[in-house]
């Protein structure tokens, strides 16, 4: 652990609730080592917190405590800069008072999924993300999309974001104005294992925090308005042999360069796509973003470099073979930033692992927009529309015993209760009102 450069005396301990909100308690920096043993108490029913400052009915009620135990190696510290007071955060694991994992701790859930992948297949999983967000602010009139003017317009904010993220150990690949008015994208490099989700939490919080101190609001809301492009959080992922570090997705002799392990992994994701969706697109507004013709994906299709597919390959043939194999990755396009990243990655890893274990056949490689085929044409390839609403996605999860087995019962039950209540809550709102509601939250 590096010493905090801004010498904060009070450090927030944060954990992701099931909705993807970072909940916190803060402690004196000097007390972190002792808190790393005992954690800090938090009511168990806090797992049932919703996005509207409430708690849905749950199995715990007033009983019980979990201990939020800081994982000291996750501490990030950003020094104060001009107009920015600096940032500190330590992520926590939720454990029971006897020190064993709490079965609703999503950090534990992802760690278990990664361990099982490694134990069963000898493989490790890495992920990288494309964070799309919309900036708003008093007097901010966004310039032409994707233009240098739109880039210059948000200096020195963009500079400060990249600097803060770099200090926080997030490998920033690029930042640019995206296709929506006031929409920007910050992409991050691959991180192996649990660090991918840890740093995603840090990325979201730092982007929002830096924007706020520069007088902007950065929102990851999946859809700002029906008429504007969505904000996605595409997940790029890779696999490597744990023992040797050898990348295994790429095989020059295989179709699309996708080797057998990767193909079976993708097949698992496609087969269970509808059940993964409540965790990848976890709010009613997420479904205003998803759909054909929006580059966000509307079908459970796979295709090389196909932006209308749910999963596509990303390949750089210009590279010499070893670097090409290391750079080759898969992209899952349905995800947005309105949820818990540990849950999302755990579901992707479980689905992929299931595909490998079951030896699922290589999915058909689609080189056209799935909307350009008729229903029969798609059906021949096993391609079906993704659920069109959160309610439909939750129903698909409920009807999929395999996907349900990937989550502890208490976690699944609580997640479904929160999300079912959320569907009810926005039932009578029109789409624009739903966009506005979630823009205030995310
Ligand atoms: N904004 C699109 C989405 O909602 C993605 C555009 C892109 O391919 O970067 O996922
Ligand atoms: Mg983009």
Helices and strands in order, then pairings?
Blueprint (H helix, E strand, L loop, with lengths): L9 E7 L5 E7 L3 H7 L1 E4 L21 E6 L5 E3 L8 E9 L10 H16 L1 E15 L10 H6 L3 H11 L4 E6 L5 E6 L2 E2 L1 H20 L2 E4 L13 E9 L18 H12 L1 H8 L5 H4 L12 E3 L6 E4 L6 H7 L1 E4 L8 H18 L16 H6 L9 H9 L2 H4 L4 H18 L4 H11 L1
Parallel strand pairs: 1-6, 13-14
Antiparallel strand pairs: 1-2, 3-4, 4-6, 5-6, 7-9, 7-10, 7-11, 7-12, 8-9, 12-15, 14-15
Magnesium ion (MG) binds next to strand 7.
Number of helices: 15
- Order of H and E elements: EEHEEEEHEHHEEEHEEHHHEEHEHHHHHH
Question: Which word captures the global form?
Answer: globular
Straight-line N-to-C gap: 30 Å
Provide the structure class.
Answer: alpha+beta
Strand tally: 15
In brief:
The chain is an alpha+beta fold and 442 residues long.
Provide an overview of this structure.
The chain is of the alpha+beta class and 442 residues long. Helices cover 36% and strands 20% of the residues. The protein has 15 helices and 15 strands. Strands 7, 8, 9, 10, 11, 12, 13, 14 and 15 form a nine-stranded mixed sheet that branches. Strands 1, 2, 3, 4, 5 and 6 form a six-stranded mixed sheet that branches. β8 and β9 (183-188) form a beta hairpin. α2 runs parallel beside α10 (341-358) and α4 (157-167) runs antiparallel to α5 (194-213). The radius of gyration is 21 Å and the shape is globular. The protein starts with 9 loop residues before the first strand and ends with a helix. Residues 130, 132, 178, 185 line the site of magnesium ion.
